[in-house]
Amino acid sequence: MRRVASWTMALVVIVVVACAGAGATVAQTPPDLSSKEISVGVKAAPPFAFKLQDGSWSGLSIDLWQKIAGRLNLRFRYVEVPTVQDQIDGVAGGKFDAAMAAITVTADREKVVDFTQPFFSTGLGIATPLNNQPSWRPVVHALTSFGFLQAVLALIVISVVVGVLIWLFERRHNDDFGGGVAKGLFSSMWWSTIAATQASTGDFGPRTVPGRVLAALWMMGSIIAIAVFTAGVTSVLTVTQMEGLVQGEGDLATVRVGNVRDSSTASYLDSTHIRHQGFASIQEGLDALRAGKIDALVHDKPLLGWLVGQNYATSLQVLDATFDQQQYAIALPLGSPLRKPLDVALLQTVESDWWKQAVFQYLGGK
Known about the structure:
CATH architecture of the largest domain: 3-Layer(aba) Sandwich
Shape: rod-shaped
Number of helices: 13
Order of helices and strands: HEEEHEHEHEEHHHHEHEHEHEEEHH
């Protein structure tokens, strides 16, 4: 009897534990999850989401959602909207049960919607024209840059100082630098400029010992100064002409920058005080860049890279630089019962070999 009682007690414990485990599993699943049709707000954001000719959707985010929906036995329908802000507003207003494509997680958006675990980490990129055509704009930009003006100003100041010293040494002993302060200073500075350029001054020049010593030092020093200055200018012009006006984020403050209007990129540019021109879509911005209306277009790097590679490969390029790290996630209404099961299914999916293959398929492993 004791043995029977022991087995009975053990069986009861097993049943209780199993029921408790089953209850925990059920608690993680929203009620009527499999019977409700989920409305999903999407927008075109290739290669993460794009509409095919037959009206169906494809892309990295679309494949991910369908994989997750399959794990959770979700029935859903896509609702297309034109902008990310429409997706956020639709979720916040209860129009959509979820929204996804390439939605960046930001503090402002987190105030009105919930986000799942991020599924893709990226950042902003810069598209610029390919420098395969001659252009005077990079040359003009280099010649008006602060560094170039500093070098020119330094040569002028040194030339003026030498001219004043020559006048002080020669004014009482050399008629070429006499005849009043204005005439003497003008003559001495004229000589200093001619000497710096290694042009012939004829018999016009210093006659005193201090004046000739200073003149000799200035002539030798000017040879070195002019050579260094010329090499520096040539290097700047060559690099600028070959690599373009924009070589990284630091150059954005001095050029004409474009971005997609009302995007997280616009918020970033505003926060860094970079003036920018907004466009309705990334395609419109790339068209303006190709037409020379702007010098750089800033947007999410994977989207820029895909579109440039597909439609603008012969005229535009995306720089290697990546900045302002961002994360894509699925947007949900505040307090959505979908969040927990979606998080679990999403993490299971992005940790699988399938996700690595999908990323490689659409982005080449980037």
